[in-house]
Each structure stands twice: as C-alpha cells, then as structure tokens.
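Hi all, posting the design record for the shared folder.

TITLE: backbone redesign
STEP: 1 of 1
STRUCTURE INPUT:
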C-alpha cells in the first residue's frame, strides 16, 4: 500500500512538472527532465561517473550491496560498542567500472622458486621463545590501564610506559652496549613515545616492520570475565586488552629483535622497526605521521614496509577509507493537527538521505578492482545515527540530524567524494528539495505563500552538511590497495603459505592511518597481523600462542626470502 501511494504521488508530481514545462517559466528547464537536467552543469566535472538522478523516486532505490562488513580500524573505532567482528568472504560485484584485467589476489604467488632458506639468518632461533614472549607481553598488558586511548572522553595514554618496557628489553643488545641494534625514542608530545629500532645491513636495501602501536582502546573491567589489565593464560589463549590490538605484536617483534641481535647474522638488508603512539585516538601530531614528517622513515623506501596491525595471520591487501558526516534538516515547528502549515524535518531527513545516497551510489559504483582485491563490499554510504529536536508527540519536529559514514574504496579519491556530496546538498538547497517525494497530501518541504510565519521561521526546508573531520583527516585514513606485483607482497604471501600450509589474502572495509599517503610517497606498504579480527576492541580480547608462534616464523621467512 505504501508503494502504491508513493507511485500515485509520483505520477501526480510528474503531471505537475509536465504542465509547468509546457507553460515555460524559470522552472521549465528543471521540470523537463527532473533533477538530472537541473544538475547537469554541476555534474559535468564528475569525470563521467554514473548517470543523472531520476528523482522524484516512488521508493528509494536499494543499495547494490548486501551486508556491509564491520570495520575493526578507523579514527572513530574506539566509539564502537564491544562486538565480535568477522571477516567476510569477498563476493562478486557487478555493474562496476573497469574490465577486470588488472592485478588480482593470487595465493600461489612466490618471490623465489625455492622455499625460504634459514641459512641467511644463521644462528637465529627458528621458533618463538614462548616463555620470553610471555614475559614481555605480561609486562605490557600490566601497563594497559595507562595505555587506554579515547581523546573524546579525555582518556589519554602514556605510551612512554610501554616504550620503556621494550627499550629495557633491547638495551643489552644496542650498539652502546656492544650489540648491533640502534635504538631511538621519538617523542613529539610529552609521555607519548614512538620507538625506532634498526638492525644495520651491509647494503642499501631495507625491510621494515612498522605500525604496531603502544596504545589500546578502553576496556570496562565490569564487562569482562577476565581482568583486562592483567595477562590471563588459558590453554592456547592469551587474554588481556591489547593482546590482539596491538601489544601482542609489540611483544612479538621485540622478541624477534632480541633473537636477531643475539645471533647477529650478516644481512644485506637493513631491518627497521618502528613502534608507534596514538594510533587509536585519530589525533595527528603524535604518532607515525610525525615520524614520517621528521624523515625518520625515509630509508624505508628502499624496501618493503610491513604494517603489522592487521589480523587473522593472512596478507591484508586492501582497506577502505572512512569519512564521517552529518546532515541537519531544518523544517518548521507546528502543532501536528496542522501538517499543511509545518515542515516535517523527520520526513525531510529521510528523503534527503535517500537522495544523497542514491546520488552517491550512481557516482561511485562497484568496480571490478574491488572484486579483484577481495573486498566484501564496494564503496558505501549509510546513516548510522539519528537525532531529533526534543518536543511533544503532538508537534511536528523542526530539526533532525542524521549522521553516518562513508566507507570508500581505495580506487576512488576522497577529494572527489567530498566535492560530490557537497554538490548534492547544494542542489537540494537551490531547488531540488522541491522535487523530493512527500507522503500524503499535506506533507510539504516548502510552505504556501499564504502560510503566516513568525520571525526566524523557515518557509522552505534547509539541509546543512557537516563533515566530522577535515580533508587532512580524510586523506590520513584514505583507502589503500597494496601493490600485488611487489617483492614485499610476494614474499609475504609465500612466507604465510610456507609457515601455515595455506594462505588466503584478503581485503577489509576498515581503515588504517597514513598507509595510503605513505604509498603515494613511494613506500611499498604491505599489511599483515596475527591477532584475531573477531575480538578486535571486544570484551575478553585475546590472541593465541599458536598464531604468535607461526607469526614469528612468517617474519623469519619474509626476511630470508628478501635476503635471497
């Protein structure tokens, strides 16, 4: 019945528009072809993406996607409720651009014909010293209470506490003590340490492990079965805040450096490790962005850079960008018994969201490259929260704000999306709002001239767009697609396959900071991680000892393959 009602209203609107067009006037050009012709000029710069809109629509068009993947990483991830996340299998995207002839995920790719040869790291332990690893991890988890990060709740970490644990562990193996390691604490905000560790090689090429961070998301002990700030071991499971994200990786790489420094193999490549601060808070000027800005990673361009902050012990080959937004729709407050004299902001917000989403999906459709990289969904825009002005049940609400986010494929640019969304809203405020579908005979988004208004009241609905972040933030968290033909990717896939007897490269719709920007600046970024995506930021977070043992072997094999 709802669809029939909307269809009937749509037909009435089309008749009115045709009559206006036949009679000429300033609206004639608009009504001849609806919004498409009206917006033709503003869309001329969209590089040919999509077709013109077809509003007014009888019913909002469905998204071309199915369920959207939850995102374990984003600048706002610490605001997410504790939940269990699952990595979805990629599905076939249809209707997108591209011919699918580009690179694709290939689990059989290899860097060398032979398996990794451990002779390149002669004398180094080939398996993780589990007791030593547990000792480091226990100390780190013991500091997790002071490493919690949520700046919006005024919870700020002291990463220097974690950095000190790592530095104390590595100090006996530094050049100052006769060892091979060069260690440098990088602090740009007091108490917020990053840490760079270098094992020098004999040549110019490098291999880097970066991205493992000292800070963690907050944990509420009352919701946990374990103490989140104390390491609990039950069988193969290691419980505690940060075991998966990301203190487990910090402990793993620290122990890897200890074993490397003890054995002192003669490597041609220089190994670079950077532990970072401030990853969870999304605040610039503290962590890896400052490290790069200061030139402390410049030499890492001479080889692959493994960003160790992913999960599921498989190569992660792509991430999505994240852009948060809100649309405030303003109407006119009136007693609900006089709907013809009010502008219902809730109804307006529904139609505005439908309009903007429709335009977004036309301009940023699924692409063949997204399927090739194994993304479970393409670019998507959706509302996630709605808030209305407080009032009585018998009042038409004058103001409604809808907020949400955009998860953007790495094959689109955030600049184009921001410009497009702003263009859609501008079109609405300059005439297209009159063409939005209304419900029933009395719902209106522009009041008749004979409706009296009080000072400050609106005769036409207004839409205000607000971005939750600036362009620098959007670029910082832009989507990323790894180079599938690089030596770094081939070495990682081969190492995972040899260590685990199976490899399944994948992509996720979450976000990581800086990786796209670093890639544009010439870094060969590859993503990997060995925790569990299903417990990212969750209650009773844990990693498994088996995964960490295999992770050590993967790192060892990567190093040997690149040396070969």
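Okay, here is what came back for every position:
SEQUENCE:
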């Amino acid at each position: 019945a709802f669809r029939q009602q909307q269809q009937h209203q749509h037909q009435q609107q089309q008749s009115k528009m045709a009559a206006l067009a036949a009679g000429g006037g300033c609206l004639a050009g608009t009504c001849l072809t609806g919004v498409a012709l009206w917006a033709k000029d503003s869309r001329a710069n969209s590089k040919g993406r999509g077709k013109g809109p077809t509003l007014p629509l009888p019913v909002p068009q469905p998204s071309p996607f199915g369920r959207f993947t939850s995102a374990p990483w984003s600048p706002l991830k610490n605001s997410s409720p504790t939940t269990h996340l699952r990595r979805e299998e990629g599905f076939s995207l249809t209707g997108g651009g591209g011919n699918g002839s580009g690179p694709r995920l290939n689990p059989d790719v290899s860097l060398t014909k032979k398996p990794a040869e451990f002779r390149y790291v002669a004398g180094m332990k080939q398996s993780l010293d589990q007791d030593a690893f547990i000792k480091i991890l226990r100390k780190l988890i013991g500091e997790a209470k002071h490493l919690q990060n949520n700046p919006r709740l005024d919870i700020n970490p002291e990463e220097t506490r974690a950095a000190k644990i790592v530095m104390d562990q590595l100090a006996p193996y530094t050049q100052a003590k006769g060892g091979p390691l060069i260690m440098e604490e990088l602090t740009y905000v007091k108490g917020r340490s990053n840490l760079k560790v270098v094992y020098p090689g004999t040549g110019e090429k490098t291999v880097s492990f970066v991205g493992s961070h000292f800070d963690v998301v907050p944990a509420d002990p009352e919701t946990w079965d374990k103490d989140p700030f104390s390491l609990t071991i039950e069988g193969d499971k290691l419980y505690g805040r940060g075991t998966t994200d990301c203190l487990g990786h910090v402990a793993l790489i620290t122990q890897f450096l200890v074993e490397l420094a003890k054995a002192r193999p003669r490597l041609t490549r220089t190994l670079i490790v950077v532990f970072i601060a401030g990853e969870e808070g999304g605040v610039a000027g503290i962590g890896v962005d400052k490290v790069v800005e200061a030139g402390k990673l410049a030499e890492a361009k001479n080889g692959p850079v493994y960003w160790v902050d992913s999960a599921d012990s498989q190569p992660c080959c792509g991430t999505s960008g994240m852009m948060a937004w809100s649309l405030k729709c303003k109407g006119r407050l009136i007693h609900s018994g006089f709907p013809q004299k009010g502008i219902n902001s809730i109804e307006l917000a529904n139609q505005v969201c439908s309009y903007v989403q429709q335009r977004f999906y036309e301009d940023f459709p699924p692409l063949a490259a997204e399927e090739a990289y194994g993304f479970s969904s393409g670019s998507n825009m959706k509302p996630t929260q709605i808030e209305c002005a407080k009032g009585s049940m018998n009042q038409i609400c004058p103001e409604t704000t809808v907020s949400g986010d955009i998860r953007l494929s790495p094959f689109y640019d955030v600049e184009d999306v921001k410009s497009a969304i702003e263009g859609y809203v501008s079109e609405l405020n300059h005439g297209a709002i009159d063409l939005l579908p209304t419900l029933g005979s009395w719902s209106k988004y522009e009041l008749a001239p004979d409706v009296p208004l009080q000072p400050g009241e609106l005769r036409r609905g207004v839409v205000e767009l607000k971005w939750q972040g600036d362009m620098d933030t959007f670029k910082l968290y832009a989507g990323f697609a790894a180079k599938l033909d690089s030596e770094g990717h081939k070495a990682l896939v081969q190492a995972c396959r040899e260590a685990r007897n199976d490899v399944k490269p994948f992509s996720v719709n979450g976000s990581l900071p800086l990786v796209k920007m670093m890639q544009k600046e010439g870094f060969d970024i590859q993503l990997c991680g060995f925790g569990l995506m299903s417990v990212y930021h969750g209650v009773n977070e844990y990693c498994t000892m088996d995964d960490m043992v295999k992770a050590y072997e993967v790192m060892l094999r990567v190093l040997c393959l690149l040396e070969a």
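COMMENT: The radius of gyration is 27 Å.
Let me know if anyone wants the other runs.
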